[in-house]
Design goal:
94 residues, alpha+beta, 2 helices, plasmid, MazF family transcriptional regulator
Length: 94
């Protein structure tokens, strides 16, 4: 059964068809319990494709890597000491 939620002044009213009222044996003024089903928050975002290949976010790739296990983690690469703008000077007053 479906019902329509409508505004009536400052209140809201559930509008049920006459046929449904008869089927359920309801009468005017009768109190009924309702069990609403929450609507989904938002549809999942559509997958983006570039040149026919899906584009994944970094979070999706990391989650898949964790799901597959430690054998699928990439090796850590040591690029050497920081140089140029990579160097952070904690004593800089800016």
């Amino acid at each position: 059964m479906r019902a329509r939620l409508e505004r009536s002044g400052d209140d809201f009213v559930l509008s049920v068809t006459r046929e449904d009222v008869r089927k359920l044996g309801l009468v005017e003024g009768q109190e009924v319990d309702i069990d609403p089903v929450p609507a989904p928050l938002a549809p999942p975002p559509a997958r983006r494709y570039v040149n026919g290949f899906p584009v994944f976010t970094m979070a999706e790739m990391a989650a898949e890597m964790r799901r597959l296990g430690p054998d699928f983690e990439p090796p850590t690469v040591d690029w050497g000491p920081d140089v140029g703008s990579e160097i952070i000077n904690d004593d800089d007053p800016r």
